[in-house]
């Protein structure tokens, strides 16, 4: 596999050494994206109300929660594989990688805007999809809960898609398709760690209420941090192409 090196004076930048830490960091940050995080808390609150009088309450909550998170995981993996496969098939230059870098920067700046200019977020789950997601969640069946996860996975792309796109652009520059897919799996495992952590803590109603309050009160700050990371990722990709 060809190593891509950029020389600046006597400094050599090897993107190979950046891949693993960037994939891990980006995945963890994406796990805190306001769309998936907010819907998970909504899902937990609703499920707690449905199951609170059952003897197997905690088991039921963990079960449906993991099914929901699995729906997000599978959807994100398939989206990533689709984009990476398309880039690997059609791209013979670094044009797609550069485009991914620029798009990541633009989306990051839009997210940061929500911190400095409060208002309706431009990058959010479409309002028309809220009812559909809620309907899937209320079914509390395996297909229904998994379907809710799939919908959230699709609809959260506008929230944090810049991070994912930047990572895919990075992988397309230096990895074979198989290596890229393995990195995508790692990315998405990192992505669900915060969601699983929230789920594990959700057996305590007071903890859930505190998380809901924290998430509601820090939406703008979360968007600022995620947007800043998107911009940084975009510049990293443009630097190594």
Strand content: under 5%
Number of strands: 2
* Helix content, binned percent: over 70%
- Structural class call reads mainly alpha
Largest sheet: 2 strands, antiparallel
Low-confidence stretches: 1-12
Shape: globular
Give the averaged pLDDT, no decimals. Answer: 76
**Cα-to-Cα separation, first versus last residue:** 16 Å
Instruction: Kindly report the spatial arrangement of strands forming the biggest sheet.
Output: 1-2
- Number of structural domains: 1
Question: What is the topological layout?
Answer:
Elements: E1 6-8, E2 11-13, H1 15-30, H2 34-51, H3 57-90, H4 95-116, H5 127-139, H6 142-155, H7 157-174, H8 177-201, H9 205-217, H10 219-240
Antiparallel strand pairs: 1-2
Note the main attributes of this structure.
81% helix; disordered N terminus; 241 residues; mainly alpha
Please characterize this protein's 3D structure.
This protein has 241 residues and is an all-alpha fold. The chain has one domain. Helices cover 81% and strands 2% of the residues. It has ten helices and two strands. A two-stranded antiparallel sheet has the order 1-2. Strand 1 and strand 2 form a beta hairpin. The two termini are 16 Å apart. Mean pLDDT is 76; it is low at 1-12.
Short description:
By secondary structure, the chain is an all-alpha fold. The protein has helices at 15-30, 34-51, 57-90, 95-116, 127-139, 142-155, 157-174, 177-201, 205-217, 219-240, and strands at residues 6-8, 11-13.
């Amino acid at each position: 596999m060809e190593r891509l090196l950029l020389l600046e004076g006597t400094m050599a930048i090897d993107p190979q050494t950046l891949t693993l830490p960037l994939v891990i960091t980006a995945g963890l940050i994406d796990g805190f994206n306001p769309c998936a995080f907010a819907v998970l808390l909504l899902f937990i609150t609703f499920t707690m109300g449905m199951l609170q009088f059952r003897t197997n309450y905690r088991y039921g909550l963990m079960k449906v929660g993991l099914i929901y998170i699995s729906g997000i995981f599978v959807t994100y993996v398939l989206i990533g594989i689709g984009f990476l496969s398309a880039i690997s098939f059609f791209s013979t230059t670094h044009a797609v990688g550069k485009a991914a870098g620029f798009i990541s920067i633009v989306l990051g700046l839009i997210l940061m805007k929500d911190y400095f200019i409060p208002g309706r977020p431009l990058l959010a789950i479409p309002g028309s999809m809220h009812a559909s997601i809620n309907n899937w969640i209320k079914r509390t069946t395996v297909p229904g809960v998994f379907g809710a996860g799939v919908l959230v996975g699709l609809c959260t792309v506008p929230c944090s898609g810049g991070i994912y796109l930047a990572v895919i652009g990075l992988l397309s520059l230096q990895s074979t398709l198989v290596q890229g897919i393995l990195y995508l799996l790692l990315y998405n495992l990192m992505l669900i760690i915060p969601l699983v952590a929230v789920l594990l803590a959700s057996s305590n109603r007071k903890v859930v209420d505190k998380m809901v309050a924290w998430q509601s009160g820090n939406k703008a700050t979360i968007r600022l941090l995620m947007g800043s990371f998107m911009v940084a990722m975009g510049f990293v990709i443009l630097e190594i192409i």
